[in-house]
Amino acid sequence: MLMNMKDLLKVAQENHFAVPAFNIGSDQLLKAVMKKVNELKSPVILEMSPDEFEFVGYGQIQAMIYEASKTDVPVVIHLDHGDKYETVVKAIQAGMTSVMIDASKLPYEENVAITKKVVETAHIANVSVESELGTIGTTGNSIEGGTEGVIYTVPAEAKQFIEDTGIDTFAVAIGTAHGIYPKDMKPKLRIDILNEITEEVKVPLVLHGGSSNKDEEIAAAVENGICKINISSDIKVAFYNKCREVLNNNLDYREPLQIYPECMEECAKVVEEKCKLFNSVGKASLYY
């Protein structure tokens, strides 16, 4: 069941759970994710960064649309961290039902101008729009990017930005970073800032950089208003670590049907862990 982000997250916001958003960079990841969320009856967001979109092309989007068409689980197809207006338009033309425009590094007025332009275009096609203020950090090992340090979202500025642009969902910067955290990097989510933001704004809130954070912090974020959590590195690390193991133990393997099944199983285990942590298991029934 294909839908846009605004409609998907409205239900999550009203029922106090978060929808997992998995970055899908291959058909194997897509199938592993969809098989598991169908089993768990969890709504899901299938997303990709501009670099992933460029790599997999329109064919992968069509595969996502097909997967959504044959299930009663709610599915959103989302462009993550759209870098410019033209990329967003391309994503809408490809069939995505939600887009993010990330102009957070620009001065406020320029950020508002490009975001508002995206909103005006996307809403014509019933496509929802996500954006952010502040910056998500980076661990240095992720294609999603980010900055060396986190610039936290200022709640009053978030309220003004949403009013100025008309976006449907808002990504908060409360201490997460894209990628897998090195051993010497200790993330800490600012739930106090999140609570201030939820008092100021009414649109559903999004948490980026959800991989490798402490479960108790993620659970607290969900309890305090986060409706969508992005997961990329965690599922890919599980998949490709198993892939390396399979190939190292079976040097004669060359067929995808030999190599990938165990890798997909490892990916699916992480999907299940995240769905349970985000309290999204069984929530598909709320959309019928």
UniProtKB/TrEMBL annotation:
Cofactor: Zn(2+)
GO MF, one example: zinc ion binding
Protein name as catalogued: Ketose-bisphosphate aldolase
Highest taxon listed in the record's lineage: Bacteria
Alphabetic keyword roster: Metal-binding, Zinc
Annotated binding of Zn(2+) 2, by residue: 102, 132
Record's keyword annotation contains Nucleus: no
Note on cofactor: Binds 2 Zn(2+) ions per subunit. One is catalytic and the other provides a structural contribution.
Annotated active site: 80
GO-annotated biological processes: carbohydrate metabolic process
Residues at which Zn(2+) 1 binds: 81, 178, 208
